[in-house]
Design a protein that fits this description.
Blueprint (H helix, E strand, L loop, with lengths): L1 H22 L3 E3 L5 E3 L32 E2 L5 E2 L11 E4 L4 E5 L2 E2 L4 E8 L3 E8 L12 E2 L2 E5 L8 E6 L4
Parallel strand pairs: 4-12, 9-12
Antiparallel strand pairs: 1-2, 3-5, 5-6, 6-11, 7-10, 8-9
Protein name: Lipoprotein
Keywords: Signal
Length: about 170
């Protein structure tokens, strides 16, 4: 009896593994001359059918530098007003009319960026964070997303001045 229980249990495990493995295989479609098709309910992953995500609009944080961004030279970034250790990676995109920069956020807050002054010599970007709602539990982590800020004109040779405001 003891061996029968082991035999039945092993048979059930093998049947389950075999059935689960068969779900991921391709089926043949006889109507199309034997071409392989994905089983119903699955998602095709061919490169042409995978939708590309829309480009992130200015202000929406992401954790990778947007494709096509160009680093702003370090001598054109003034980060003296930022706290020690605050990131100051700055990139341009879209012909210099978008600034992508590394910001800091934590817990329930989200990084914000705004161009508060644009002159012929410099662009001042104010970095801030949204406030957490009162009574809401938040994690105590720090994140460093890239945020985008739109400029009225291409950055060109202007200096990027970074400053930080209290959470809003």
């Amino acid at each position: 009896m003891r061996n029968l229980t082991k035999l039945v249990g092993t048979g059930l495990i093998l049947a389950t593994v075999t059935a689960c493995g068969a779900q991921g295989t391709m089926a043949t479609n006889p109507a199309s001359g034997g071409d392989s098709v994905a089983p119903s309910g699955s998602i095709s992953t061919s490169p042409s059918s995978v939708p590309k995500p829309p480009p992130n609009p200015p202000g929406k944080p992401r954790f990778e530098v947007p494709a096509g961004s160009t680093p702003v030279p370090a001598d054109k970034v003034d980060a003296k007003a930022l706290p020690s250790g605050f990131p100051h990676e700055v990139y341009t995109a879209n012909g210099g009319t978008i600034i992508n920069l590394r910001a800091e956020e934590g817990g329930c807050g989200h990084a914000l960026g705004e161009a508060i002054e644009q002159t012929a010599q410099h662009v001042v970007l104010d970095l801030s964070e949204t406030k957490a709602q009162t009574g809401q539990m938040c994690t105590m982590d720090l994140r460093y997303p890239y945020i985008s800020v739109a400029l009225a004109a291409p950055l060109g040779e202007r200096t990027v001045v970074l400053k930080q405001s209290p959470p809003r």
